[in-house]
Every structure is written in structure tokens, then in C-alpha cells.
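Teaching assistant here, posting this on the class forum so everyone can see the example we discussed in section. The complex has two components, and the goal was to see what a joint structure prediction looks like when all of them are supplied at once.
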Amino acid sequence: MLFNSIDFAIFLPIVFILYWFFTNKNLKLQNLLIVLSSYIFYGWWDWRFLSLILFSTVIDYLIGINLSKQESQTKRKILLWTSTLVNLGFLGFFKYYNFFLDNFITAFSFFGTNISVNSLNIILPVGISFYTFQTLSYTIDVYKRKLEPTKEFIAFSAFVSFFPQLVAGPIERATNLLPQFYTKRSFDNKNAMIGIRQIVWGLFKKVVIADTCAQYANEIFNTYEIYSSTTLIIGAVCFTFQIYCDFSGYSDIAIGSSRLFGFKLMKNFNYPYFSRDIAEFWRRWHISLSTWFRDYLYIPLGGSKVEKYKVIRNVFIIFIVSGFWHGANWTFIVWGTLNGLYFLPSMLNNKNRRHLNIIAENKNTPSLKELCFMVKTFILVVFAWIFFRAENMQTAIAYIKKIFVFSLEIERLRIERYSIEIFPLIFLLIIIEWFGRHKDFPLFKDNKYQLKTIIIILLILVLGNFSDMNDFIYFQF
Amino acid sequence: MRIFFKNIALLSIALIVMSIVLDKSYTYIHYNGAPRNIPDYIMGLKKKDSFDYVVLGSSRVLHNININLIEQETTKKGFNFGIPGSSVFEIKLSVQQIVKRKITKNIYIQIDYIWNEFYSGGECTVDWLTYINENDIWNEFHKIDKNNEYVLYKKIPFLRYCEYGSKLGFRELIMSLSNRKMSVIDDNKGFVPLFGKIKNTEKTMKYILKDEFNPHLKDIIELCEKENINLYFFTSPIYNFKGNNKVLKNSLPNYKDFSNVIPNSKYYQDNTHLNNKGSKYFTKLFMNEYLKERTHN
């Protein structure tokens, strides 16, 4: 079920009413409702893959209980590795099988050996990377004794499958989300209204900005051969805003929907394009994944408290793995590596934590220095996104080569009706986000008549792309 | 919870009011702005915009009949109302509005396998949704609305403009307000040439026509008889056509089958569409058959 669909617009109020009016007196019943709703939400896409979620849930639930009973370190390790292998095994099979197979065949043919193996026609289950990492965090935390394993299967199932964040995050930690299923939720009007506003804001980013930018980005990236340098740069900038508004829009709707049910999810984006360096960008972009890799991969590898060459190794490992997490394509690996390269100098010079505050704090405009830093970071990010968006490495390289054949000509795109509004729309987004950058999201506060919210709803009605709408990009990951 | 529902009610009322106001504004602009599609153009026609003849149908009219060429040869003023993806249902809507506006006495309709489409609209039905609140247009939508889909577009304000934003929404409206009418309306009188040649000359085209009379066509024939309109049916050329149009010949008045008159592949862009060269060739055949030999009212 898509957040920007009529189905969800009907589904959400029904679950809301059942949740607060029919099951509110019984916590277990409320959690059961969440599980059933989540399974319906996911099954709407393809019910066959519900068995994968259920299987992961059962395995991690049982392993969690066994970990608490087990004192032998060896047996505990075996249990941890069982969970890791099962979860990553599913992920590896569905997401990476064909990639490894193709590269294996290519590598052998390079040495003159031709192997004939057929690739499989595998459907990638929506959100598998997200819920796999979420359940893994539970087992690892239980193994590290940071978390007591749950004995409540329904609560655990609700944690794994919680529909607002099931298919595209934020990737929740068991330490944050699971305990929320143990305690009775009470309805808080203020929090619920913040939730509604966050949903509206997320929808605005998705259907107005991201889906409009997508029209430009798709046209320019798909037929880059016919366009000149400036148009290609515009295409890359459009994709930069598309991916941000698409993904952060989804996160806003997810967090907003959770608020309606009395849950607090972690923040996933914090105005990343207002970053002054790459380190700050990565503290503000897809926070739930970055911190996951930091806590479960980077720090266990030694983090930055080891020899310099190991720090370099650790930085590249998390960036490459992060790139690979997005998809089985060399373009994602290059995107990750490039970000690692951007990040490394500040890490080695201990300048990666220079910008921990909000840019231009207590000011309306940034200083010239801040603006230059921000623009420089933005350009680096845009450049890396070209790899992320391109179909394959050949396309990415050809696209970049064409950008460097400088030309100031801007061609009229072949999509006539999308020719006027993109720059004002992006400008509008930047202005709204700039003045709202000290809040969780720009619509966090509103007056009693909800005036700002009403204006944003009006913009959604008028400018929303409902007929040319695209799936959320991160569904494919 | 009460305060929450009060706020939700406030937002819902705002949403409803905005939808009604936007719906009225969009509809007004579609009626009065520069036409962005054929239905817009038809609905804006007045009696003074009269034509000696009009041609209706799908892309097999749009790309096949060059109105300017006919005008040069015969001085007869016409218009090509071909809409890509048009089914008989949309042709009926067009005919009804054309007849209502009394802008011509001679109507030519291209018909082929679209004969088989009895109860559904084609992909261009959306273009007519702007005008769904007109009684006669709604009556027609109502007849095909088996799934109660169109009634939602009529009853829920702004739904049609939201859902079909790319065809009817804000971006089209801006074009309309900035007076950017469809360029083909003025330049080519509706005709849009295709360029290129057919790629697969071995491919054949075949269809089987239902033995039942198409109800929309029946309505068109009755309407034209009642209003004293000369109605002609024809089938455009088809490359490698292996079917037959006997059903059409036996059922339709003033029917002419051109399906096999152009056998050479160089005149085609694909099996069912002529290229620019082919459209010139066919237009001459069409003209000789209908417009040179007859004297129109």
C-alpha cells in the first residue's frame, strides 16, 4: 500500500478508529491490531512475502529468548550467527544473488573460462533491507545484553512489522521502539496534530516536489545523449531534490502516522542539504541507517580509536557497505566509495565534528563562509547522486563526460507541460525548509486555525502529481 | 480526542471548500481558456465557427487526413477531430456536441475494430471529464458507468482534476491561461502528420468484428437522422489487412471501406497509421470519394 494512495487514505482512519475506540482498553489487543493492520498493509503489495516477515519474526523471537537463557559464550555466538545468517541469507538471496552470479561469470570470462549459469527471475520483497536490519538490531542488542529479550510474541511481531515504517524505515532500534509496545499508549491531541501536520508535510514533499522533479530527472537521465551540459546539471539537481523529498517525505509520513498511534520514531532526516561539510551531511541524511552502521559495524571494527590505516579501512567499509545496502549494482558501490572519499579528509584531520550546531543559528541568513561551505557540500552531493541515479556505470560515466563538455544552452524538454514550475517549486522548498530548520519539520507548529497546514494542503491539491506519480524510490531497497 | 476531531473537522471543511472552489475555477478556465485538447475545442465552438465537413475518429483519423490539403484543392473548410485512443463512446460525445452547436451538416466517422467497444470508454475519455456536469454528457457517462467510477468524478469536487492532473490539472491550466492552445488547432486543423516508415513489413493485421450492432453508433445514426446531418462512415487504410469489414458494410449507412486501397508499405508508419506521404495519398482518395463528387449542403 502506498502512502500517497486512496487505499492508505481509507486504511489509516479505519485503523485509527479501531485502535483508539475498540482496542484501547487492552494493550495486547491493541498490539494485535497493529500486527494485523501491518500484515494487511504489506500484503496489499504481495501477500506471499508475508511469510518472510513472519519467519524472521519467529526466528529472532526464539533466538532472543534462548540468548537470555544461555550462559555459554560459544553457544550465544552460535545463536547470534544463526540469526545473522538467516536474516542476511534472505537479503542476500533476494537482493544480491543475481548480482554476484553475473559478476562471478564476468570475472571467470575475463580469465578465459566461460561459465553458463542461468540467473533467477527473483522479485525483491519490498522493504526487506529495512526490516532485516531492524530485527538484526534486536538480536545484536540482546546478545550484547543491552536489551532484555521480549517474551511477548505479539509485541515483538508488532515491532518487526509496524506498518508506518515497515517498508522504508526509519530503521528503528529495538531499544527505542520495542519498549513502546509494552506500555499503554494514551491519546495526546497535541502529538496527534503534530502527526497530521507531519503527514501533510511529507505528502507535499512527495507528490509536489519529488514527483515533479522525477519528471525532469527521468527525462534527462533516460535520454541524456540528446541534452547538453547545463541541462544535464539541471537533471542531476532535480534528482538530488527528488530523492531527498521522496525519501524524507516517506519518513515524515511514517513518523507522523506513528504519532497518531502514540509512538515516537527516530528522526531520519535533518535538513541535509543545509550541511557545511560531508560529515555533517551524513549526520543529517538517512540518520537511522547511518547510525545503524556506526553502532553495529563501524564501532565494532574499532571506529576511529585505532591506527590511522584501520580508520581509513573502517570508513571505507561502512560507506561501501552502505552503498551496497541500497542495491546490487556497481553504481551504488561507487556512490558509497565516493562519499567515503569525500568524508575521509575531515576524519583524518579530526574535523568531522566541526559543525554540530544548526547552520546560521539564531540568524536569518548564513554568512558568506557558511554559504560557500554549503554550496561546496551540495555540489559534491549532487555529483555523487549521478552514480546513484544512473542505470549502470557506463551511463554514469557518459553522463558526467557530457557535463564536462561545457555549454550554456538549456534545451526545452520533450515533456511540454513540465516546463515552468520546477525552479519556483525547488526555491519554495528551500525557503520553507530554511526558515523551519530548527524544528523537527517546518510544519511542526501552527496556529489554532491550522493556517499553514491548510496552505500546504492547497498546494498539494493544485500542484500534486497524482497521475504521474511514482513509487517511493526507497521501496526498491 | 474531541479537540483532535475538531481540528480534523476544520481541516476537512477547508479541504472540501478548497476542492469546490478549485473545481469551479478549473472548469471555468477549461471552458473559457485556450483549448488544450479536442473536447475543450469542441465545447468552445459556436455556430459562427461552421465547417463544410468534419472528420471524427481515433489516431487513424488524426494522422491520416490532411485538412489543409483538402482546403487547397476544394476550398472546403473542414476539421480533423481525431483523438488518439478514441473509442466509439468518445466519438459519440463529440458528435453530440458538434450537432448541438450546429457547426456542420456533414460528418465523417472512421470506424474499424473500435466497432467492438460497446461499454467502455477509450483512454481519451479523461479529456471529457471536465464537462461531466453537462447533463447530456453525464447521461452518456452514466450509461457506461458499470463500476460507479464516473459518478465519483461527478460527485466529488476536484477529484477528476487531481487524479488526471497531467491531462486536466494545473499545468494544463497554465498553458490554457497563457493562451497556448494546441498548436495543431490553428496550423493543421487538427491533423498531425507522422514521419518514418513501417519497420516490419511482414506483420499482418486482422480483427474479428462482433455481429451485434454497436449501441453508441446506433445513437449517432439516430441523432444525425433526426438533425438532418449527412453521416458517412469509412475505414482508413491498413497495411497487410487480412480481416474483413463485412459487418460494417452491412450495418452502417454510407460506408466506404478503404482498408485495402493502399498496399505499398512506403506509405505506412505502422500497420494502422499512415506516414506523412501516406496521409497525402489517402487524403486525395478521401477527397475524390467524398468531397469532389458530392455537393454539400
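For the discussion questions: Residues 6-186 of chain A form one domain. Residues 70 and 361 of chain A are 51 Å apart (CA to CA). Think about how each of these relates to the inputs above.
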